[in-house]
Amino acid sequence: MPVNILKRTQIDEWGKLRRALWPEVAFDQHRREMTDILSDPEFNAVFVSTGRNRKLNGFIEVSMRLTAEGCRSSPIGYLEGWFVAPEVRKKGIGGALLARAEAWAASKGCKEIASDTEVENALSRVVHAQLGYEEVSRLAHFHKELRHTPS
After folding, report:
1. What is residue 138's predicted lDDT score, i.e. its pLDDT?
2. Per-domain residue ranges for the chain?
């Protein structure tokens, strides 16, 4: 299963896979994020897997961060997004994408790589663990709307 750096001709397909991973995100936000990622290749990379039909069936987005939960070194490779199409899962594609992202991070001088997922995303947590990632913390986020009173 070939895993390669994203080509410009594959950007639309990558966008479709991103929308499958994050369907709640508006199309315009995906476009902005994709533009930001592609505009800074020193600190970001996108690797893709191509099926026999030459269509993308998976991607991984990796960046470099200064810090990450549970990490002691800096910089740190960080998995920003990781998706394999449901119809081709359990065939080693996710592991191949991850290996390529890890190699990229190591080539940038990173000694550690980190990731995150929603606590309720059981599949992602299992896959991370199967591929050698240790869960280091759980975090609950809170929100409250404030009422503005005239002064």
Report:
1. 83
2. 3-130
